[in-house]
Amino acid sequence: MDGDRTEAELIALAAAWAQAIVANDATRIADFVTDDWVLVSESGVSPGHEFLALVSSGELTHSAMAAVGDSRVRVWGDTAVITARITNTAHYRGRRFDADEWTTDVFVHRDGRWRCAVSHYSTAG
């Protein structure tokens, strides 16, 4: 894989994934992740299907998501890591949350496409 082209592909993929999250479209979001996708935060490890279920139910919505500065992309064969600072606005069960977070997403290249297997986030600052 061409390094610059792969990096650009992954940056575009991350932007499209963020758009799917802000659209609150669980089906579209699921297209960007592996079946065993997990989210890691200070509260532990959560199966991605729980996040998707919250979005599907409308209990969790996002109204904004933006990268702050440039993302760092590293590719090693069929594995890639994107590290970025992301701000977002979410509503969980009617309560608004504004977040400024460092995120690290681990992508794997399978069946001709990149999908996220692990998302880790922590509060910036």
Summarize the entry for a quick read:
The chain is α+β, with helices and mostly antiparallel strands. The chain is built from 3 helices and 6 strands. 20% of the residues are buried.
List the helices and strands and how they pair.
Blueprint: H1 3-22, H2 26-30, E1 33-41, E2 44-47, H3 48-57, E3 60-76, E4 79-92, E5 95-110, E6 113-123
Parallel strand pairs: 1-6
Antiparallel strand pairs: 1-2, 3-4, 4-5, 5-6
Write structural notes for this entry.
This protein has 125 residues and is of the alpha+beta class. It has a single domain, classed as Nuclear Transport Factor 2, Chain: A (Roll). 28% of the residues lie in helices and 57% in strands. Strands 2-1-6-5-4-3 form a 6-stranded mixed beta sheet, covered by helices on one side. β3 and β4 form a beta hairpin. The protein is globular, with a radius of gyration of 14 Å. The mean pLDDT is 96.
How are the strands ordered across the major sheet?
2-1-6-5-4-3
Principal-axis shape equals globular
Low-confidence stretches: none
- Run of helices and strands: HHEEHEEEE
DSSP summary, beta strand count: 6
Within the CATH hierarchy, at the fold level, what is the topology? Nuclear Transport Factor 2, Chain: A
Q: What is the chains' assembly state?
A: single chain
| Reported CATH architecture | Roll
Query: How far do the termini sit from each other?
Result: 35 Å
Rg estimate, integer Å? 14 Å
Number of helices: 3
Count of separate structural domains: 1
